[in-house]
Design a protein that fits this description.
- The chain is of the alpha+beta class.
- The protein has 2 domains: 34 residues; 97 residues, no CATH class.
- It is built from 4 helices and 8 strands.
- The strands form 3 sheets. Strands 5-6-7-8 form a 4-stranded antiparallel β-sheet. A two-stranded antiparallel ribbon has the order 1-2. A two-stranded antiparallel ribbon has the order 3-4.
- The N and C termini lie far apart (102 Å).
Length: 154
């Protein structure tokens, strides 16, 4: 005689174990529903974020207006960089590389980090403080001044 308890007729089994809804499956379903709800809530919350905040856009404008050398702004120096290096910068899927601005607002540091990237080259970086002070990193300043000199700028 079989020691297993008798199963109701028509009960489905897997490896002799009856399939049925248990407290364990309820906990699993609640955890998955909670995770799905949190992910949906996070997605909805991110939906209002714009590509650049007003503060980040202002920081990029401040970087553009910053003088690299007397009479030459960063925007003009970046155009010289484009003329000189765009043809050799690797873009997506063999396309010509296009410059891309990135800005990271860090209000707890009272500054915005700004990056200018051209293809696979190392990005150029600046920090823009809340008081409007624009500070390029050492490599960025070296490259922009070198391109300005080579480009015939003062």
């Amino acid at each position: 005689m079989d020691a297993a308890p008798a199963l109701a007729r028509g009960t489905r089994t897997v490896f002799g174990k009856p399939l049925g809804w248990t407290r364990g499956w309820t906990v699993v379903a609640v955890v998955w529903a909670l995770a799905a709800g949190l992910l949906i809530g996070a997605r909805i919350d991110v939906g209002h974020v714009t590509a650049l905040s007003a503060r980040e856009a202002a920081a990029i404008e401040a970087v553009d207006a910053k003088e690299v050398t007397p009479g030459l702004t960063s925007a003009e120096a970046l155009q010289l960089v484009l003329r000189r290096y765009a043809a050799t910068a690797a873009g997506d899927a063999g396309q010509v590389a296009r410059p891309q601005w990135y800005a990271l607002d860090r209000p707890w540091e009272d500054r915005v980090y700004v990056y200018w990237e051209l293809g696979d080259y190392e990005p150029l970086a600046w920090t823009v403080d809340d008081d409007g002070t624009v500070t390029p990193d050492a490599g960025t300043m070296l490259l922009l001044r070198g391109v300005a000199r080579a480009g015939g700028a003062p």
